[in-house]
């Protein structure tokens, strides 16, 4: 290291600190954008021309994401170099070395974890991305609510089927009681037997 004014190194530190946080925010934004673009492409686009156009857009966003990764790593190296000169400690709690496995969406599960059981990646713990944490919490809560609602729907369906069967059984008994009262009209008796058989078959 060349001899350098301490104030200049502190200014450089502050600049690199801000640069690292900006790069993290850019990275998170591009990860979200890529995810939405892939989902939109899979859900709405058909045909080679539309898919190729969408893939070109996605490739551009992926390149910006890679650029944000490089920007962060460059700023992190500078912070590591400057930290001992300016007396900064514990700064790596919020700005850790960026590994390849860290570059993914907050809700992406790895290592056998399912949504709601894994840990949140450190890149998403920045105070400026708390909204993302709220969104993921709401998605997990909604998923749990859907499971509970599905169970309730199954119970309701079973009860509805029980009531339908009880009604058909009652209707069959009613028609058979009516048959006992009909003695003269043969056509009416045949119709009543037919209706009773239909209810029984249901």
Core attributes:
mainly alpha, 72% helix, 202 residues
Folded structure, characterized:
- The chain has 202 residues and is mostly helical.
- The chain is built from four helices and no strands.
- The radius of gyration is 33 Å and the shape is elongated.
- The N and C termini lie far apart (89 Å).
Distance between the termini: 89 Å
H/E element string? Answer: HHHH
Radius of gyration computed on alpha carbons: 33 Å
* Principal-axes shape call: elongated
Q: Stretches where pLDDT falls below 50 for ≥5 residues?
A: none
- Beta-strand fraction estimate: under 5%
Counted beta strands = 0
Which structural class fits the helix and strand makeup? mainly alpha
Q: How much is the average pLDDT? A: 79
Overall helicity: over 70%
The largest pleated sheet is described as: none
Count of runs of 4 or more consecutive helical residues: 4
Compile the SSE list and pairings:
Blueprint: H1 6-44, H2 48-86, H3 130-181, H4 186-201
Concise synopsis of the structure shown:
The chain is built from four helices and no strands. The chain has 202 residues and is mainly α. α1 packs antiparallel against α2 and α3 runs antiparallel to α4.
